[in-house]
Write a structure and sequence with these properties.
Layout lengths: L2 H5 L8 E2 L1 E4 L15 H14 L3 E5 L5 H13 L4 E7 L2 H10 L6 E8 L2 H8 L3 H16 L5 E6 L6 H14 L3 E6 L6 H14 L7 E6 L6 H10 L4 E4 L13 H10 L7 E2 L7 H12 L20 H9 L27 H10 L6 H17 L5 H11 L7 E9 L7 E8 L2 E8 L3 H13 L4 E9 L8 E9 L2 E9 L2 H21 L10
Parallel strand pairs: 1-10, 2-3, 2-9, 3-4, 4-5, 5-6, 6-7, 7-8, 8-9
Antiparallel strand pairs: 11-12, 12-13, 14-15, 15-16
């Protein structure tokens, strides 16, 4: 295995660069429960910049004030990647996207319209000729604001090929620089998709001067395979998400796509990405911490079991030579070993170095809070693992926009009486306290929190797991809460699982409150 694969860094010059267009902040956020507030989007955007993605699609500016503010903030903060805003072909959409991108160093407007007869008849109720007019007007309007315009033909894989040639030809003539061919409903297959890309590259007038892009959904489990097939056929931009999150079954998984190309250089000879692969695992963990959605254990590349070997014959082979059963190493994606790293006698310097190794760069105040939390945890348990530190940092991050915070919490439970919880919640800076009864301690905690926050939400799912092994492991809780059709996921971590439960519930309620303050308008969710 090469040294490059071992350290996860890529300095090799390649003949052709595959642009990684990350849409975690836009399409990925459309996963149920995966919505993020502005601060969370900026935090993740900074990590994506460190990861080395080429383009970040920060949101859909006209969809809501929250989306507009997020695109604006990401555009202001990030200097290296292109920052992109999504827009339908409507004039107001494009104008709003341009406004959100005014402070971007490298702005891109991404405009789209459906092109399949299914969408034209049932959704748009437009003729093919009318759509061509819309494409021409929209791209020209976008080019009036920025030099970098991407055009997408929504539902391209169910569109007539010759009509797509006409659509993309118009888009190029109007000034588009990137042509996106989305598999919007995850319908196509690798061979079929490759043939479509090759057909368009051959037939669209002026296609030599454009970058062909692909955007695949995973409804049939083929998003990564389809994207790789498209690359082989000449596509040079892939739209994907961290952990493969996205609507329905998700989008193309960034980490799977990138590591497939790196591992199989014999197949993908002469092409590469600009991704710093040793930032893949930290990016995956950060996204899970922000959204509260954990990665499935058997998820390729970043799942907990991706480098685990339980079968005896596998263990024997790996011990003799890792290459027998490992085609890539944990270090190649930035996954640190799960060994004891720090203890209660460790100082600030050692703690800061470990945070940096795990991908966290904290401001002075945040660092001091995290360090104190680490010292408290070190007093409570004998061994501190990397996962403990990741959970500490994820759990302590609070938004300035949060209405609620958990104060004191005391629980009485057992076989001699009905469980009760005395709960203190700080609401808009004011401390409130109550005592509630429940069928169990968690029920009592949640009832107390519900009373103090006056929430009308419903608890849909409650999950708890140990961050590491051992009786003194840090407990991590995630809850799914819904209200008025909006579903969010909250998470909390603490050495006391009941305290973690309270923190997770409050985290979820803060997310719901944030959504209430957003002035959403009806808008399609995009490609």
């Amino acid at each position: 295995m090469s040294d490059e694969m071992s350290d996860g860094m890529s300095n090799e010059k390649s003949d052709e660069r595959i642009r990684i267009f990350d849409t975690t902040l836009r399409d990925g956020e459309q996963s149920p429960g995966c919505s993020m507030n502005l601060n969370e989007k900026v935090t993740l955007g900074k990590q994506l910049e460190k990861l080395g993605v080429d383009i970040i699609e920060a949101g859909f500016p006209i969809a809501s004030e929250g989306d507009f503010g997020a695109v604006q903030a990401v555009a202001r903060e990030l200097r290296e990647p292109i920052v992109c805003g999504l827009a339908r072909t409507g004039s107001a959409d494009i104008e709003r996207a341009a406004q959100a991108l005014e402070e971007a160093k490298k702005p891109r407007i991404h405009t789209f319209i459906a092109t399949s007869d299914i969408h034209l008849e049932h959704k748009l109720r437009m003729s093919r000729e009318r759509v061509l007019e819309e494409v021409d007007r929209a791209v020209r309007q976008a080019r009036g604001y920025v030099d970098d315009v991407e055009f997408s033909a929504e539902d391209a894989t169910r569109s007539d090929r010759d009509y797509l040639v006409d659509v993309f030809g118009i888009a190029l003539e109007a000034g588009a620089t990137t042509l996106n061919v989305p598999d919007t409903v995850g319908y196509t297959t690798p061979q079929e998709y490759a043939e479509l890309i090759a057909y368009l590259k051959e037939r669209v007038p002026g296609s030599d001067g454009a970058v062909f892009s692909v955007h695949c959904h995973n409804d049939l489990g083929l998003a990564v395979a389809n994207s790789l097939a498209a690359i082989a056929a000449g596509a040079r931009q892939v739209e994907c998400t961290v952990n493969g999150i996205g609507e329905r079954a998700g989008n193309t998984s960034m980490e799977e796509l990138v590591m497939a190309m790196k591992t199989r250089r014999d197949v993908f000879a002469g092409i590469d990405t600009g991704i710093a692969t040793n930032e893949i695992y930290p990016s995956s963990r950060l996204l899970s911490a922000i959204t509260g959605v954990m990665v499935q254990p058997n998820k390729a590349i970043v799942g907990d079991n991706a480098f685990a070997h339980e079968a005896g014959i596998h263990q024997d082979g790996v011990l003799k030579a890792p290459i027998t059963y490992e085609i890539l190493t944990p270090a190649s994606i930035g996954k640190a070993s799960n060994e004891l790293v720090l203890g209660k006698h460790s100082g600030r310097h050692a703690f800061r170095e470990r945070l940096l190794e795990l991908g966290f760069e904290l401001e002075v105040e945040e660092f001091e809070r995290a360090f104190q939390r680490f010292k408290d945890l070190a007093d409570a348990k004998k061994t501190i693992f990397n996962e403990d530190i990741e959970a500490i940092v994820a759990d302590m991050v609070e938004s300035a926009e949060d209405r609620f915070s958990l104060g004191e919490l005391s629980i009485t439970c057992g076989t001699f009486g009905k469980p009760s919880a005395t709960v203190e919640i700080v609401v808009d800076g004011e401390a409130r306290k109550t005592t509630a009864l429940g069928v169990g301690p968690v029920d009592a905690i949640f009832k107390g929190i519900s009373e103090l926050t006056e929430t009308k939400s419903h608890l849909e799912k409650y999950q708890v797991h140990a961050v590491t092994s051992g009786l003194d492991a840090l407990g991590e809780v995630s809850v799914t809460v819904s209200e008025e059709g909006r579903r969010v996921i909250g998470r909390g971590a603490h050495e006391d699982v009941l305290v973690a439960s309270g923190k997770a519930y409050v985290h979820a309620l803060n997310k719901l409150e944030w959504h209430k303050r957003r002035r959403e308008v009806e808008a399609p969710k995009g490609i």
